[in-house]
Amino acid sequence: MTLKVAIQGEEASFHDIATDKFFSQDTKRIFCNNFSDTFSTLNRGLSDFALCAIENSLYGSITEVYDLLLKNKVYIVGEVYLHIGQCLIGLPNSNLSEISSVYSHPVALAQCEQYLDTYLSNAQRLEYHDTAASVKLIKDKNDPTKAAIASSQAAKLYSMNILAESIETNKHNYTRFVVLSKSNINKETTTNKTSLIVETDHTPGSLYMALGCFAKRSINITKIQSRPIIGRPWHYMFYMDVNIGDDNKDFLEAKEELIQQGCEVAVLGSYLSAEQQLSRSLE
What is the pLDDT, as a whole number, of residue 264? Predict the structure, then answer.
């Protein structure tokens, strides 16, 4: 059976590469223009899964995806980390000294600021909806003064020239992607990581007390991200990732204590961490 996976971007985009890394069986990609379309495709039953970038080690959290997780009834059922190596790509007859404009996704442009400031300080930086699509764009424009930032796979796909490799500011550049499903497919399986939303009372010390529910049980919180509550100015909810499955006794006790404190708790999904997946694949 071929799985249908909705992703933001096109063939040879980093979402496309991450899909190959996560899924061991054949998949059919459903390419979407933005994250909202990706969630919509999954919700309408047009795909079996969706895969979305949620944070980057340099750029930080992609808050739009956190907000879409709140608005849509979906489950996080997996994650994958992908090393992001960015290339400056141009036409076969392009020269670095002649580049006057650079196209790419805004996150990719931000990841390569140091290189652009140093070598292309006078070039215009133009945002585009996808890295791989920006390569196709400059190929179609057929202008040797235009370049794109994308993966080496995108350059190969469109038979373009790599003008410079590894231009990301920090070589330890990783993006975390989450795999989404309309159903909780991990309900009967062993997991070791859980994503949840906690909304605390708007009182002094409420977040401190909420975090204490995990600390007293030695549950490691690997991620915490605040997001505003729509319609309630200056009130926030907190997205958390914890290194424990949602059926673990300690997690269930922590969840119950949060509720007793007056917190609202919603579990987004429980799954195997990327590290655990790698460990199992090496066994």
Answer: 95
pTM confidence score: 0.91
DSSP codes joined into one string, 97-119: GG--EEEE-HHHHHHTHHHHHHH
pLDDT of residue 8: 94
Residue 203 neighbours by CB distance under 10 Å: 9
Element at 163 (helix H, strand E): strand 161-164
256: which residues sit within 8 A by CB, 6+ positions away? none
- Domain extents in the chain: 3-83+175-181, 87-164, 193-282
* Closest by CA position to 17, among listed 134, 150, 180: 150
Domain made up of 87-164: CATH architecture: 3-Layer(aba) Sandwich (3.40)
The listed CATH number (3.40.50.10070, 3.30.230.10, 3.40.50.1580, 3.40.190.10) that belongs to domain 3-83+175-181: 3.40.190.10
Residue 148 DSSP SS3: strand
Q: Which of 179, 222, 210, 142 lies closest to 52 in space, CA to CA?
A: 179
Distances (CA, A) of 56 to 84, 230, 256, 275, 276: 9, 25, 32, 16, 20
Q: What distance in Å separates the CA atoms of residue 221 and residue 75, rounded to the nearest whole number? A: 19
DSSP 3-state of 272: coil
* Residue 277 pLDDT grade (very low, low, confident, very high; cuts 50, 70, 90): low
* 5: three-class secondary structure by DSSP: strand
Indicate the residue type of 161. N
On whether the 193-282 domain is CATH 3.30.70.260, my answer is yes
pLDDT at 235 over 90: no
Beta bridge mates, 80 = 177
Q: Does the pLDDT at position 163 exceed 90?
A: yes
